[in-house]
Write a structure and sequence with these properties.
Strand order of the largest sheet: 4-3-5-6
Structural class: alpha/beta
Radius of gyration: 18 Å
Mean pLDDT: 91
Low-confidence stretches: none
Number of helices: 10
Largest sheet: 4 strands, parallel
Helix content: 40-55%
Amino acid sequence: MRARVLAIGRHLVAQGCSLIVVACNTATAAAVAAFRELLPGLPVVGVEPGVKPAAMASRSGRIAVLATLSTTRSKRLAELIRQHASAVQVDVVACDGWASRVETLHLDDPDFAAEARQHLAPLLAAGADQIVLGCTHYTFLRPVLEPLVANRATLVDVADAVARQCVRLAGAGTSSGGRLALFATAHPERLQAALPVLGLGRLCDRQTQAARLAVTLM
């Protein structure tokens, strides 16, 4: 994982990027420190589960973290909980296959709603009032998850906080009108086709060209 993240970082710098977001909890834990050492002076924003804001916002004193198996087992998540959530009860749940479901665009499968309900029902019954989306893929599952938590809990997503940090680091001249280039390590046509399905169709108008293969990373 570390070598892969660093290779991607070098590729992005070669493409002219002046700020990089490591938009994956697992990759952040594995390599963001090495990334910053490799590229001193380049702003690098990591992404980690929103344990701190969830713990601060909880009124019931119980929160939950939904994450990939690798993240649930990571030392970094354990450290986040120790640092920021020692005063609340934290339930950590591995959601096997959820990230793959997003990548394969199986978002509205009735079986997933049933599976998600099985994960969430005991957490809600136990009193968790903040549910942390501990994987960046899970944002795209909100249309299924939100009705299941209804008014009983809040889904905690760090996407907005990461965006604000990027704007702060990029400076006052930041504009939302930039052009967009998409690279994939395999099957760029699938990435391109996924945009409208994931609600990102508006990005197509900003692309300099269709998603393409990052050959240097293969």
